[in-house]
Amino acid sequence: MTLALEIVLVITSILMVVFVLLHKGKGGGLSTLFGGGVQANLSGSTTVEKNLDRVTVILCLIWIACIIGLNLTQTFAVPS
């Protein structure tokens, strides 16, 4: 059980990093430093961006559940 949770945690961590980096810059960050702020303000929120948000939130919830599950298995593990 612990090994499965650790594997899911690593996979979701890597996927979350990838999906967060795929997001469009909202302005005020490093993306405006390289001229990305004007384009981000002109284009509206697309369906792709909304779906990317949903996938990122779902991955985040799975990630949090894995952390809580690992913590519970460590806390209530029977010492050998």
Automatic annotation (TrEMBL):
Localization recorded for this chain is: Cell membrane
Query: Gene encoding it?
Result: secG
Keyword tags: Cell membrane, Membrane, Protein transport, Translocation, Transmembrane, Transmembrane helix, Transport
Q: What is its main location?
A: membrane
Matching PANTHER family? PROTEIN-EXPORT MEMBRANE PROTEIN SECG
Bilayer-crossing residues are 6-22, 55-77
Its recorded name reads: Protein-export membrane protein SecG
The membrane topology noted for this protein in its Swiss-Prot or TrEMBL record is: Multi-pass membrane protein
Q: Which Pfam families match?
A: SecG (PF03840)
The protein's job, in short, is: Involved in protein export. Participates in an early event of protein translocation.
Q: Which organism is it from?
A: Corynebacterium stercoris
Q: Is Protein transport among the key words of this record?
A: yes
